[in-house]
């Protein structure tokens, strides 16, 4: 298995995304932009780094399914700061999650929040899965300026984040792991696979690319080249509100298997 990965912050602030890769698994974490007064003495990169470390310690055990690994990892992070922080705060630091792991002749995957996994077969077919529960919320209120960023008010987030009928992310409540989307892919016939944060999938969601097109491009320019492409589109995009994030942290991991 060959790997290519890259992660770039959206601006001058620290990168709140993270990727980790081994010869059998990969993960992508996308930290949720921090709200003021989130009850935590730690920043989002702290949360993401600790969650990545907790997952890394567990994901190598193929006997434990990915939801259970995420559950235990969230518990581990919560235990590291429950004595100093108010983990009941509705906007406590959190992250979206994308995991893949080889399990014998299959690749298992997990998504929680708006990360995406996409894969291509040797015959050219492409499939993808995204956790689109956030994008499909109905009756959402107008966004407002919160801490200089346009987003939903905390009062609304408290009613939909990690709630039935809302959307799910990794934060302080390990029960969210049970709501993760999971599946598996036969390794036979598989050519390559990508795990991406939503800062990179803007190429599909906002700029009209298809996943087959992205696989062709990533074969030529690598993941870093895809990030350059989304940055170029962001610079030329005239639709952004002045307080919207023109560039998001963008992360992707590409796994490629040799032809037989």
From TrEMBL:
- InterPro entries assigned: PPM-type-like_dom_sf
Question: Per its UniProt entry, which superkingdom is the organism in?
Answer: Bacteria
Q: In its UniProt entry, what is this protein called?
A: Protein phosphatase 2C domain-containing protein
| Highest classification ranks of the organism | Bacteria, Bacillati, Actinomycetota, Actinomycetes, Glycomycetales
